[in-house]
Amino acid sequence: MADTSQRERITRYIQDTYGTQAEYLWADSPGNAIFRHSASKKWYAAMMRVLPEKLGLTGEEALDVMDIKCSTIMIGSLLSTKGFLPAYHMNKNHWISIVLDNSVPDDQITPLLELSYDNVAPKRRKSVLCRQRNRFKTQGQEESAYENALEPGGRPNPPYKN
Question: Which distant-in-sequence residues (6+ apart) come within 8 Å of 73 by Cβ?
Fold first, then answer.
């Protein structure tokens, strides 16, 4: 894998792991791509070619950078690590940039991608659980039957999903 760029390796990882393809949205920036969560359609990663001066760095050659969604606390600690920068072109409170020049190992990036993917996943609404609880009550079943139908963490088991 030494002959492939980190950007290519991470792109392949995203495609293999999450089944999402890069979307190239900007005609004037054909190398810039985003990745969307398949269910929520929200972005969880953006890959761009950026001039170092736009990132507060020195150099002449454009860098491959990936923005991912991240918790504010995690952003604070990651910014003190080489290869992590305040998010380029995104909300700096919720996104962070990773320079894809091998300064951050792939095995450190992949768990952060998983967190970003999970952060944009659709949230199960409380009203769905209330409807399921009401369905049990109207069917004359005890409320304990509803509780027994929940997985650990309060999610309904598959037969009771809408």
Answer: none
